[in-house]
Amino acid sequence: MTELPCACLVCSDAPVGRDDRIVDTVRQHGWSALRVEGGLSFAYTVGLWHTFRRPEIVMFGLDGENMQHWLNACVDRGRAHGWPEPGEPFEGVLQGFETQLRPVHESWRDALFGTAHRFYGGFEVPVLQLVWPDRDGHWPWTDGATPSSRNRQAFAWLPVSEHPAGAWRLVGELEPGFPFPVGPDSLALTTAAVLDGERPIARVSLDDGAYDVLDERGYDADDLCLAFLGDLVVRYPQVTAAADLGEGQVAISGDDQVWLRAGQSPSDSRASQRAWESAQPR
């Protein structure tokens, strides 16, 4: 069977644009390992399909630079010793720990792999997830796994619609196209009453890169907490009207759901800082 020609930016005459560094790296080394920083970070390869006709690899939830290193180690290990079947132990990537490779469900592609989509000219290449265990060797889907290892990794082998609720589910559902300049997995300061639908959102502010989404009690509320911004958007779509706030601005909900803009007062900025220091995730 004749192999289909590669339509990536290395092989085609398409303009490289902002991906010039990735193209240069793939030409020189065969692949590039990218990191994407956010509320939770992830990293993935670009170029494995072009160079080796192997699936790209993604890793979630650890330090971005370290994940780039481990992805490169994964590729080197696979090339030198052979690639395991999905779900089989894969040793030699994380020192002292086994890993696994699992196929990523296609429903995650738009949310996570925009750069790969551009690089391959829209051609949907397969992707494998490099899964890591907790310190005791428990896989994230097992009962004994630590909450950190379970929550920091997407279960990307599942369809987005079947993923457990949480940060990665929000990323899968709301990206790309989330209207705020931060991701849906970013934490926001809010109140339990807002989350429970007991009080409407009265004000949204942006201070030091973080959003406060509060009811009419403001920083005097006794139930201040942290929640994912994407969760608030799902519950209150009207809050996206404040997505274009500038740093140090506040939007106050007025009549007919009109948001009135003003500058955040110094006292409110100090109150916000104190609240962020003490509030806990809901």
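^ that was protein a. below is b, sequence first then the tokens
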Amino acid sequence: APPEKERKQTKAVEAENAAPGPQIKKVRLSDGSFHFLDHEKRNIALFDGVQFSSSMRNVTTIRGQTRIAKIVLRDRVFLSGLRSPIHYSPSELELSGITAQIAKGQLDGDFSMQPQAEDSPFTVHASFHRVQADQLVAEAGGSREIIRGTLEGTLEATGKTADPDALTGSGTILLQNGHVQQFAVLAALGQLLQIEELTQLDLEQAEAKYHLAGNTVLVDELLLRSPNLRLTATGSVSLRGKLALDSVLAINEKIRSQLFRGIRENFVATSEPGQYALQFHVGGTLEKPKTDLVERAVGADLKDLGGVIDALLGHKSKKKKAAPSASPTP
């Protein structure tokens, strides 16, 4: 046989006799748990009950499905029952068609990351529907009684896995069938003056626009509107729960006319006819918000009324200790 033909036959025999090398065609993870901390050992994210199954086209490409029973983000946002297709290659990790439950509502979205790029940049697109506001606030550490209603919203964000301060993005939140517990001072004034709307705020409109800057949510516009009241605010909420909101409470002539004169005069006429506004600040934390609305609404000259309101709010007045009597001179 010609030499070239002999070489081909020899290679064919060697290929048949060669033992096949190890090959990984499927990967499965059951009941996994992943816990991520920042450099100060604070919780960033917890993934618990992770189930993962996939097929491998080659040693670097994976396609499959993932399920995660529980996700906790910054100890404030809780997701459950997450499901998503997953695709991994050296250039991209992609979770498309994500679905999950959040505060008895539904979250849908997509996530992609470039694992080999510097700082592993990522992109998130998400929308949520039928989220119960009281449940969401309670899980974040606030009082369930603060707000009721159903939340709808969106989030578009980009960031870097290795740099928490690089998080940027924007979103919207809409509250439907909303009811907000009044600030304590308004509730007290409502009881004192028998103005029901000051104690019960049923909302005609409730929405917020925000954007992200690292570890802070910047509130571009917060609007709560009822037939006779309007509350607006701008400011920031840190991911640790710290509040800094410059707020305005506006009332119409109907409500203003029912207030005591001293309080009524603290509401200043706005450019909108028939509307009167009072500026105040909200600080503290989500767990313990603080506001100067009491001082601004009551005013420094209404000390007696302020005492009545303090009594309604359950604030105890501080009694000054009597000065010790001087000892008699011999």
